[in-house]
Amino acid sequence: MNRNPWFDNIKGFLVIFVVIGHMLTDLRFDYDGKLLETVYLVIYSFHMPLFIILSGYFFRENKYLRVIQLFAVYCVWQILIGSWATFGEGLPLLSGQNLGTHLLRPYWALWYLFVMVVWYIVTPYVVHLRGYVWFGLAFALLYGFELENTGFLALRKLIMFYPYFLLGNYLSEHEFIRIFEMPKSFKRRMNVRLIGGLAFASVVGFLLYEAWRDTPQEIVALANAFKHRFPYVEQYDSDAWVGVLKHSVIYFLSITASLGFMMLVPMRRLPLVTRAGELSLYVYLLHVFFVMAWRQYVTTAFVPQTWLALLIVIGVALLIVGVIIHPLIVRLMRPLIEIDIRPIVEERQDLSKKG
Questions:
Q1: Distance CA 109, CA 107 (A)
Q2: What is the pTM (predicted TM-score) of this model?
């Protein structure tokens, strides 16, 4: 099957932003000023929403083998990454303190794999509802009042990121995504890029204005809103319905920036980016180990200038991605990432027939 470089380029840029964002998570607090906080805010305003929109776009019903495979990959990497983090903290691996054994509490970045499994299971039923995107959005906005924040089942992210997945599925069903695909005509392609550029720039401009007038702490709080991290009472210092209105704006900004960014991405193959998109799951899983090492050894501001720190972070992130997508690493990691569950399923089916 021929892959579309446009989709791979989008995923490639997004997974690079994932690495940069995770490297900035702690570092942004070590520098004065607002540069790192602002870059972090812009990245988190659209990179995961667009990732999830694309996941919903490529979702297909009755792919039960895909569900089993995703769950198998999640379990393997929850154990590996969670155990590695537990070992790094000096905690006993053979105990209940091992984060990797808590399969119902996805560790860190693994929430995305876990919620994908759940979404694949429930979406075939949800899409039969009339106006299911609005239903998912309304449920997510109502869930913002819920105070639970333990990480159990990654519930907050599971529910509040779900509207993006449903939107992607809706765009796929109605072939609406074709509006955003790059036409062959140069003139029409430039018109699409102009619309996308205006949409993306308008959101980024608004966020830059907010960052300019806000304190660094307020910028961090706004980034947390885009991450759907806290309930309204904590995020907005109020549990009143104003939280619903403010979070509705968050969804609007994320969707606008996501669709606008799509229209800016080239269709041709790009060095590093296209292959990173083809192997986005490899980057998503393996970069965690590099970022853990980064956080362990780069514990304070390592250069005096903030702008230089940002350039170094971007350079190191690109280097990490380049290492991960190297053919040798891909071959070594393929059995743990592209887990082939067909022999297991076929064996169970044979046993059932014999029974």
A1: 6
A2: 0.93
